[in-house]
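Box S2. Input/output pair 1.
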Amino acid sequence: MPQELALYGEFSINETILYFGWIYGLKTKDIKERVRFLVDLLDLPPGKRLVKNLSGGQQRRVSLAVAVLHQPELLILDEPTVGVDPILRANIWNYMVREAKEKKQSIIITTHYIDEARQAQTIGMMRSGEILAENAPEQLLKMYGCTSLEEVFLNLSQQQEIALKADTPTKSVEKQFKVRHEKKSEGLGELDEKLSINGNQTIVRDWEYMSCGYLVYLDIDTINLEYYPDTSSCTKAVVEGKAWGCMYIKSTFSEALLERVKRIFLNNLLESVKHTTLSEIQVWLDMTNHQIALVLQRDILQGFDNFTKDVVKQCHVDSTLFRPPIRFETVYGSNRPVFTNFAAPGVILTIVFFLAVSLTALALIMERNEGLLGRSFVADQFIIGVTATEILFSHVFTQFIVMVGQTLLALLFMIAVFKVDCIGSMVGVIVMALLQGLCGMCFGFVISAVCTHERNAIQVSLGCFYPTIMLSGSLWPLEAMPKVLRCISWMLPLTLATRAVRSIMLRGWGIEWSHVYWGYVATCAWIAIFMIVAILIVKL
């Protein structure tokens, strides 16, 4: 029985005794019989009361009941009668004396109540880590000519002080035994940028107003147009962060563009070059946000391409003459890729992984600090007890249910709220997400086994989040990383899993593809590695 409580506060009294009874290898029937006896002996409260709701003295009595429950051959109690009234203290001592005599139990007790120790067969008096005397109570009283053990201890302490000051041992303290303890962005949805336009708001389908006709072809779902009277006010809006870009269409745009096209048809290329500058559209972009700038560039060019095709079609000219010589066709995905579809697989797996880490990162720390973990392991050394493997797997089974709920909720938001495309098997995505959650739980066990304080575990968990999400290919492709970072990335538990889920959702691949099955293999391997490491650390 340790001096600290070493009990789980969320258990009731009956649950606590039943738990340790099973650890000690007792049958449920025998446990219930012992409970009835111990309730009377220790005057315990009703069995349904939670341990955390008991007073300090009542909690100590429950801890004592757990210690004597299985009637061990060797019983070590650290101040079992602290906070106990005199009558109950006498009952406890009578019980222990009876057990020692009738059942030949060896009972070692530490106490600062010297007089109550008179009932023991042998007493060892210790001060400052040194045993001053060890003998039967009557022999000590006779040897030092005292009437009480407290007086004996006082005399021995005074003699020890004299001996230490003189740096020589005294005759009364024949042997000294030294006692020493060994230390053991915004933005996964559609973009809504503002693009400042310096031009006329009136849109008329006429050759003299081709600039206005071009604006019609800009994607209004992506680009929000605002009109400014001049170029300076337009660019000022970009400088002040009120707009992402500024477009300037010259007043000669329509005439120059029409003249440019005519010269091309008349094979007068030199004259056509003269009108090139006059028919240009100037665009200033805020390139600090690469994704927004990239989308603006794409939509501005795509809008102009659609505009020119429509213009030449109205002129009864084959639009293929103005088509670029390079044609892009998609194998997977669409011509207008959405960043949400790229980032969602990695982001979801990262969320599931670190939510699972939070479930287990503090589990062993709390049990270790409460003393419950050590008490369970002590039972394993002497009786049946529980092993580190059993404790870890019990946490896995209980927390797995919570993790499944978290995972399904995250996937539901991904599909229903963010409208992420999934052309492959949703079952494969769910299985991978659950495996990543299990992997996160095992990683949390490693953190919990290594760290000794809650704050350290939280700091380690948070410290792993940013490198993982940046290096696992969730937000940035692996091919764009330096070789050193790419090597590190391949060793992360989320990298291959992210690639596998992305292949399932965006390419429709199945388990027969190497990208997919290696994701499953790597995740299972990391689960095994983390679990083995956690078990080994806990056993140390």
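Box S3. Input/output pair 2.
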Amino acid sequence: MVLVMQADASFWDSLVFDGIDDVDVEGVTAVFGTVEVVARGRMTGAGCPDCGNFSDRVHDRYQLRVKDLPLGGQSFVIRLVVRRFICVSADCRRRTFAEPFSRLTTPYARFTTRLNHALEKVGLALAGRAGARLTAQLGFGAGRMTLLRRVMLLPDPQLGTPRVLRVDDFAIRRGQTYYTVLTCVEAHRVVDVLPTREAGPLSEWLVRHPGVEVICRDRAGAYAEGARRGAPTALQVADRFHLRQGLGRAVETCVAAHRDCLRGSLPSLRSTRPNLEGPRDTSDPVGRRADRKKAAHALVHELLAQGRSRRAIARHLGWGLNTVLRYANAAHWQDTFRENRPRPSRLDPYKPYLESRFAAGCTSVTRLHRELLAENAPVTYQMVRAHIATLRSVAPEAPPPPPTVRQVTGWLTRHPTSSFGGVDSGGAGHMRRFRGRRLCRILARRRVAVDV
């Protein structure tokens, strides 16, 4: 569907070209949800971009399609009729040049300046794919590479010489080429990146950027030498991260020297024979079966209280005499539940032998069955297999491995309020009295800087 609207110059100038006084609107059309405005330049001529001479001699015309921000929820496109002028200077190397629209768009661009600013903001906030999905929802869809190119074309923010400078090393891949990153502590912004971790580049950078008062660094000798040569009056300090890192390395070295003490702190092993009898349940039975037994017990005792005999109650209720006797002889309805005790088995005399062999490491059912048959034991393979399966289900867990050096280092240097998993109360008390945790507590409470 094509809808041709009347071009009211004053209306469109105020709505679309507000503040741009060198464009005239010629026509407006709406094509399948896209509003197109045809406009042309208002000036009679333009200056050559090379020599600067003014020219009004038109060489030819062409249309430039420029995409703009959505208008009323619809895509908005501006078709500019661009004139090409002939340069009147005989000494100029440029023969023709296009009419400039510097306030609306840039040369070779397909987006208006306003849309470019919007794409830059979306690219900075969401980058590629996420930004492309958002622009499609907002009505001015752009590809992920378009957004990334807009971000890469933005100039780097210029920061002055920081008063407090952090010097640290980093690598894109650990163990590969390391660089030196310089960061402004107050602004939390990266200032520069040096190609090596040597003292020379750092001292040269400090000489070129005087005014650094405090240098926050680690304990590397190259950084100390570079800071001393480049900024001799600056105060060199260590921040919380490097203090905690240095403490962790010292504690890890100490713990590694006493590695044997970690192995000697294991608890004694429990008995290898499992406890096959589980804890006795002392709670009242629940469920429909318990409700039926409770009601039957109350009914039998109610009939006994009326003076009826046990045989009469059995005939009246249609129950067996033994059932009535069981309810009548039970003082409480809970006593009517029979304990499901295991029945005696032909394997019972040989269970201690099987359990001792299982604890010794022999878990083959075939081998154990053959050993019992050699002793003329009246047992079957299925009986031995069922008992070994029971032993496997309740076998004691293997003793826990001793703590590693890094685990103990973490227990000694982590946040003071953290717990010590897997350490008994005595060991936890010794760790809390460790002097290094006083430093961790100070670092956690406030920001500190220590001279190095």
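Caption for Box S3: DSSP finds 17 helices and 14 strands in the chain. The longest strand covers residues 58-71.
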